[in-house]
User: What shape does this take?
Amino acid sequence: MPDDKDKPNQQLDEEHTRRQSFLKLGLGSLAVAGVGAAVFGYEFLSPNVLYEPSPIMNAGKPDQYPRGSVTADPKNGIYIIHGPEGFYALSAVCTHLGCLTQWAPEQGLIACPCHGSKFNPEGTKVDGPAPRPLAWLRMWISDEGDLMVDRSTAVPVKQFLRT
Ligand code: FES
Assistant: This one.
């Protein structure tokens, strides 16, 4: 049986403990809100940038492309062609609506599977709705002797690279 003299002290202790609990709860809520605000603030302030691969690609050594060959590189969306007058790179992206074309060796043509455009190995349209020839892309030899292609830079037609 508790002593009556102790009751006020006991009530004081309970009130003190309750106050401490509310204080801890409040500080905990503030900490959670602060972390949430920091996360949203970081996401809001960080730039919304799409990181794309470089348009410049290394196509390897020239001797891996025999004269007269058309080599499709669908991963990079280009053709490396070693014609009688030298090397050149063509974009494999159809100028109609942007489908990826395919080399059809049995026809000796580059064909678009979407609406039937066809191009000769120099990129000139020979059939279909494509409004323009396939783009010729800048090509050069690196210091290490590799063929380099800049997929973002078109060059005039018949700008061959002679090695
Ligand atoms: S996208 Fe190639 S013919 Fe239409």
